[in-house]
Amino acid sequence: MIVAFSVTPLGVGEDVGEYVADAVRVVRESGLPNRTDAMFTSVEGEWDEVMDVVKRAVAAVEARAPRVSLVLKADIRPGVTDGLTSKVETVERHLGA
């Protein structure tokens, strides 16, 4: 499964990068395949391990912010591994054709 999620602290002002970094640090330290861009962090693995990482990432932000917003999108596809990379490679292949 791949989960793309965004954690945003609320009530801390406009500069939220430091708080978001706390969440991304949790993801990177999880050891699961992941990728971060300007809008979302995507993480790949089994349901329980991915959801545990999301929960811990939210908790890291929640520890310092009075309110937290979570946006989450999941691609649940049993048996597929390395989807985080292969999905992008497929699109790139079509773009190059």
Summarize the structure.
With 97 residues, the protein is α+β, with helices and mostly antiparallel strands. It is 44% helix and 26% strand.
Describe this structure in words.
The protein is α+β, with helices and mostly antiparallel strands and 97 residues long. The chain has a single domain, classed as Alpha-Beta Plaits (2-Layer Sandwich), CATH 3.30.70. The protein is built from three helices and four strands; from the N terminus they run βαββαβα. β2 (34-36) and β3 (41-44) form a beta hairpin. α1 (17-29) runs antiparallel to α2 (47-62). The longest helix is centred in the middle third of the chain and has 16 residues, at 47-62. The chain is globular, with a radius of gyration of 15 Å.
- Poorly predicted runs are none
Overall 3D shape: globular
Query: If strands are numbered along the chain, what order do they take across the biggest sheet?
Result: 2-3-1-4
Please work out how many helical segments DSSP would assign.
3
Q: Mean pLDDT, as a whole number?
A: 95
Topology as a string of helices (H) and strands (E):
EHEEHEH
Instruction: Domain count, please report it.
Output: 1
What distance lies between the first and last C-alpha atoms, to the nearest angstrom? 28 Å
Helix content: 40-55%
What's the CATH topology label? Alpha-Beta Plaits
CATH architecture title = 2-Layer Sandwich
Global structural class: alpha+beta
The largest sheet is: 4 strands, antiparallel
CATH class: Alpha Beta
Number of beta-strand segments: 4
How much of the residues is beta strand, in percent?
25-35%
- In angstroms, what is the radius of gyration? 15 Å
